[in-house]
Amino acid sequence: MRYFTNVHDLGDLKSALAEAFEIKKDRYKYETLGKHKTCLLIFFNNSLRTRLSTQKAARNLGMDVIVLDVNQGAWKLETERGVIMDGDKSEHLLEAIPVMASYCDIIGVRSFAHFENREDDYTEKILNQFIKYSGKPVFSMEAATGHPLQAFADLITIEEYKKKDRPKVVLTWAPHPRALPQAVPNSFADWMNEADVDFVITHPEGYELDPKFVRGAKVEYNQMKAFEGADFIYAKNWACPGVTRPADYGKVLSKDMNWTVDAAHMAVTNDAFFMHCLPVRRNMIVTDEVIEAPTSLVIPEAANREISATVVLKRMLEGLE
Ligand code: CP
């Protein structure tokens, strides 16, 4: 595998899940595969889980790891071609990318949406420059419109905890004080649409996700109705994706606390498991009671980030020339 940005890069999901469970049983099974190979992790944005789990995954495979926080200690990077660089940005991404690539074999990139220009975000302007100019395999550690390592870990978690062959999985919008990207809900939808689940998305009007990710999923605007009989509730906030009104792209249209996942919401489900990618704002997205309940999977879900990253890096190592 040369690139990992969406569900299709992984091929057959059943094989990928089988590989994940094989690695979960013995995470050091391929500990020599990455000998003398270096994984460079580049962060344009903050991270706790991705930073730690991806380093751990690379080390499970015997790789060396270099971590660069672009905004802490590196030169400030210009990303637009053609600008006169007379401001505070000392280096252009077009030089920085091949230089960084010369020190490693595989590159992971975290670069969130900027919410300045929908097209720039939805064409993955930063991530695609790494793919185009590095000459190295590149994987997303959450880009402007997708977070595939998270969605793969979510699928592994659902597979581990499901009590029926085809569970009902509900992705629900929930309130948040600030504008957040659509990367997590987009990727979650991308993956659930390929998985063997009954998938429903619920959100207030105006928060419609991009049709490229929604595909054939059912969209239900009545959150309580969507929750009825659900086996898994996946909560996440996202800012307006600008699908129905492009001018609203990146705006916070609602902070309606009626959408906070609480015990009353969970009561209409089929004793559903609660999921969230973390970090989570308690008592905005979900109440203390729900996130602390035995049915909350937020910790095992985060732990599975090591497994999803190990599978992805293993496949990338196997694909090196
Ligand atoms: N879920 C997730 O990607 O967490 P971090 O932002 O802490 O990496």
TrEMBL record:
It is an enzyme of class 2 (transferase). Pathway: Amino-acid biosynthesis; L-arginine biosynthesis. It comes from the Bacteria. Pfam families: OTCace (PF00185), OTCace_N (PF02729). Catalyzes the transfer of the carbamoyl group from carbamoyl phosphate to the delta-amino group of N(2)-succinyl-L-ornithine to produce N(2)-succinyl-L-citrulline. Is essential for arginine biosynthesis. HAMAP family: SOTCase. This is N-succinylornithine carbamoyltransferase. The lineage of its organism: Bacteria, Pseudomonadati, Bacteroidota, Bacteroidia, Bacteroidales. The gene is argF'.
